[in-house]
C-alpha cells in the first residue's frame, strides 16, 4: 500500500482553507510521503497564492517535482500521482491533478468530474513527441514505454523525459445560491411583518452570492 492522503482545515489570517489530497505512489512510498509533507506547503508559500491561485498551483507542482527528482537517491526511483483540492472559506474549490486519481463533486446530486484522467492513450502525441512510446499489450492497460499506466506523474526519473508533471486545474463556486421552497417558507414564517420577511429572503439570496436580479414578495394570509 503506497497511498498517502491529506484531509485537514487550516486557518491563514482571516481565511479558512480545507486541504484534501490523495497521493497514489508506485515503486515505493518515498515520493507520495514527500508529497504529503511538502506539496500543500509549497502551494501556500507561493507569493501569488491570493492573487493567481491557478498559477501558484502550477508553479508549486513544478517546483515540487524538481525537488523530488533532486532527492531521488533518498526517495527512491518510483513516483506518484496526485489529486489535490483546496476549499477557500467554504465557497471556492480548486482541484488540481497529475495522473489518474479522480476528484468528483456532487452538485444537487449530480456527479461532476473535477479532474482529468491522464492516461497514456489520451496523451500519446505528447509522449511520442518526447521520444517515448505507448504499449498496448493484449490483456494489459496502455503503458508509457511498457511500464507506467499514467502519462503524468511526480518523480519517475527513468521515464521523466517522456512524462509530464504539470497539473490540470479546475475551479468552481461552492454555494447554495438557490433558496429551496421549504427554506423560503421557513425563513418567511418566522417573521410576522411580510415586508421584513421579504427583505430577509432578499438578504439571504445576496448572502448566497446570487448573481441574478433579486425581487421578492411575501403575502401573509389572515386566518
UniProtKB/TrEMBL annotation:
| EC number(s) given by UniProt | 3.1.3.16
- Does the keyword section mention Metal-binding? yes
As cofactor, the record names:
Mg(2+); Mn(2+)
Name the coiled-coil region(s).
none
Gene3D superfamilies hit by this protein? PPM-type phosphatase domain (3.60.40.10)
Classification via Pfam families = PP2C
Q: Which reaction does it catalyse?
A: O-phospho-L-threonyl-[protein] + H2O = L-threonyl-[protein] + phosphate; O-phospho-L-seryl-[protein] + H2O = L-seryl-[protein] + phosphate
Mind telling me which PROSITE patterns this protein's record contains?
A: PPM_2
UniProt GO molecular function:
metal ion binding; protein serine/threonine phosphatase activity
> Which keywords fit this entry according to its UniProt record?
Hydrolase, Magnesium, Manganese, Metal-binding, Protein phosphatase
Indicate the enzyme's highest-level EC class.
hydrolase
Q: Give the residue range of the signal peptide.
A: none
Domain PPM-type phosphatase: where? 1-221
SMART domains registered for this protein in UniProt: PP2Cc
Q: Which family does it belong to?
A: Belongs to the PP2C family.
PANTHER family according to UniProt: PROTEIN PHOSPHATASE
Query: What name is this protein filed under?
Result: protein-serine/threonine phosphatase
Amino acid at each position: 500500500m503506497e497511498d498517502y492522503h491529506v484531509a485537514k482545515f487550516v486557518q491563514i489570517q482571516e481565511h479558512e482553507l480545507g486541504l484534501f489530497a490523495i497521493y497514489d505512489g508506485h515503486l515505493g512510498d518515498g515520493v507520495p510521503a514527500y508529497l504529503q509533507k511538502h506539496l500543500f506547503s509549497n502551494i501556500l508559500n507561493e507569493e501569488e497564492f491570493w492573487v493567481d491561485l491557478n498559477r501558484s498551483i502550477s508553479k508549486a507542482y513544478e517546483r515540487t517535482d524538481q525537488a523530488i527528482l533532486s532527492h531521488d537517491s533518498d526517495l527512491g526511483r518510483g513516483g506518484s500521482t496526485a489529486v489535490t483540492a483546496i476549499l477557500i472559506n467554504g465557497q471556492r474549490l480548486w482541484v488540481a491533478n497529475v495522473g489518474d486519481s479522480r476528484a468528483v463533486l456532487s452538485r444537487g446530486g449530480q456527479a461532476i468530474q473535477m479532474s482529468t484522467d491522464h492516461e497514456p492513450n489520451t496523451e500519446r502525441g505528447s509522449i511520442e513527441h518526447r521520444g517515448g512510446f505507448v504499449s498496448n499489450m493484449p490483456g494489459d492497460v496502455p503503458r508509457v514505454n511498457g511500464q507506467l499506466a499514467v502519462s503524468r506523474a511526480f518523480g519517475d526519473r527513468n521515464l521523466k523525459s517522456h512524462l509530464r508533471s504539470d497539473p490540470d486545474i479546475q475551479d468552481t463556486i461552492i454555494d447554495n445560491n438557490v433558496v429551496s421552497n421549504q427554506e423560503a417558507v421557513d425563513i418567511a414564517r418566522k417573521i410576522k411583518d411580510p415586508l421584513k420577511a421579504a427583505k430577509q429572503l432578499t438578504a439571504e439570496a445576496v448572502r448566497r452570492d446570487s448573481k441574478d436580479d433579486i425581487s421578492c414578495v411575501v403575502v401573509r394570509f389572515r386566518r
